[in-house]
Amino acid sequence: MWEELIRRAIAQLDYAYAPYSEFKVGAALLCRDGRIFTGCNIENSAYGPSNCAERTAIFKAVSEGFRDFKAIAIVGGKHGKIEDYCAPCGVCRQVMAEFCHPEEFQIIMAKSPEDYQVCTLGELLPKAFSPKILEVEQG
């Protein structure tokens, strides 16, 4: 299953809009029901409004009513050439912490469908600020 998810992420590199950094990123998000949402990075000349591939995929899924996620595959590289594993940035990790269980959600960082590393969100973002922190004890 990871190989197909990685292939879908790699296909997103063709859609990445990265004229400033020239670092293209693709992502494919797997929902627990098997549905896959894809995303690419979309840069902006003002930099702040730019959006990463991972967040694009997550926001697409959430905007269509999906919030139960199993895994995300991420690929990236300068000019879309994948030479190393591409880890999610801190902002993307925080968005994942909003919607994903830290010990169950799998992050697949890939060079190819055959060459990848898998870790949990909890391993990449220990002690995350999450919705649980904001829960108010009912008494």
Written description of the protein model:
- Helices cover 26% and strands 24% of the residues.
- The chain is built from four helices and five strands.
- Strands 2-1-3-4-5 form a five-stranded mixed β-sheet.
- The chain is globular and about 40 Å long.
- The protein starts with a helix and ends in a 15-residue tail after the last helix.
Oligomer: single chain
Strand residues, percent: 15-25%
Mean pLDDT across the residues is 95
Instruction: Report the span from N to C terminus.
Output: 45 Å
Q: Enumerate the spans where pLDDT stays under 50 for 5 or more consecutive residues.
A: none
SSE pattern: HEEHEHEEH
Structure annotation, total helices = 4
Strands side by side in the biggest sheet? 2-1-3-4-5
Secondary structure category: alpha+beta
Cα Rg: 15 Å
